[in-house]
Amino acid sequence: xSGVRLRPYAWDADEAGVHALWLRAFGPSWxxxxxxxxxxxxxxxxxxxxxxxxxxxxxxxxxxxATQCRPPDGGSPSxxxxxxxxxxxxxxxxxxxGIGYALVETAVxxxxxxxxxxxxxxxxxxxxxxxxxxxxxxxxxxxxxxxGWEETEVSHDLLLPLTGYAPPAAVLDRAGGQGVAVxxxxxxxxxxxxxxERAHFPSWLAGYERALAAAPGDVVVARGxxxxxxxxxxxxxxxxxxxxxxxWTGLLGPDTGSIGAVGVAPEARGRGTGLALxxxxxxxxxxxxxxxxxxxxTWLVDxxxxxxYRPWRRYRMSVRTL
Length: 322
Prior knowledge:
The protein has two domains: 5-149, 3-Layer(aba) Sandwich (Aminopeptidase); 158-314, Gcn5-related N-acetyltransferase (GNAT) (Aminopeptidase). 31% of the residues lie in helices and 28% in strands. The protein has helices at 11-26, 34-41, 99-113, 140-146, 169-177, 190-200, 205-214, 249-252, 273-287, 301-305; strands spanning 5-8, 52-57, 60-70, 82-90, 118-121, 133-134, 153-161, 181-184, 219-223, 229-236, 256-264, 292-298, 310-317, 319-321. It has an eight-stranded mixed sheet with strand order 6-13-7-12-11-10-9-8, sandwiched between helices. The chain has a six-stranded mixed sheet with strand order 1-2-3-4-5-14. Strand 9 (219-223) and strand 10 (229-236) form a beta hairpin. The longest helix has 16 residues, at 11-26. The protein is elongated. 41% of the residues are buried.
C-alpha cells in the first residue's frame, strides 16, 4: 500500500476516476456506462459518505470498493442490517500490493460499525451489480477465496431468445386447470397487488409500486377463481416506463428485456402458477420490443429451462457472519 492513500469516495470528484478504473479492471467482461455506475452507487439517493472507498495514487483512482447496509428483506430499522460488498476493483497495474485486501477488510469493518451482522459478496438490497462474485473475470473468486471467503451456493442469470416466442399453451392450460388465470394487471389492480407483495414479498414492494405507477401492464398477476391475487411478476422491455434500463446492454444488446420478482403465495404453489407467470411475463417483454429476455439472480435453472431459458452468467455466493 506504499505510495497510495485510502479515503472515502467523494461523489463529484471521484465518479469519473472510478468509471475509468472500472473499464480498466472489468471493461472487456462487464462494460458499463457512467450513468449505470452512478445508478447503482447512488441508488435512489441512498449514498452516504463512507459507503464507498477509493485508493488514490496521486490524482488517479487505482482501487475502489462499494458497500450497502440495509435491514434484511425490507425489515424494520430496529433489525440488525445486512451488509453487502457490491464490487471491489483494483487497477491491473497496482495488483498484488495488498490494495484489494485492504479495501475489503476496511469495508467489512465499516459495515460492522454500522451494525451489520452479516456481509455478502455482491447482491445489495436497493440496487446491485451482480448477485454474487461473477465467474468472469476468472481471477475474481480466487482473490476472495484467498482472503478467507467461502462459497455458499451458486446463482445464475438466464436468457431466453424471444424470436417467435409465445407463452406455451400447455403451461397456461395447466394453471387454468387449477383455477388460476394469468395476465397483465390493470390500474384498478394496484391496491390488491401491493397488498399481496406487502404480505408475502415485502422486499419487492418498492419495485411493484414504481411499475404500477408507470405501466400497470408490465405487472403480470395470477388470479384465483374468486379473483384474488395468488402471484405476480414484473416484466420490462428494452426501455421500461418509469424504471431504469438494464445495466448490461453493452453485453446483451440494447433490445434486451427482463422479468423478475416472480412470487407465488404458498397456497398456490405446485399448480404451475409460477411457470405461467414467467411464460406470460416473457411474452409481455417481447410485446414491448425485446428480442431476448433476462431472468436475473436465480437458482432455478432447470425450472426456467422448461420455457427455454438458458444460463448466461454464473455467480458464486458468499456470506460472512460478523
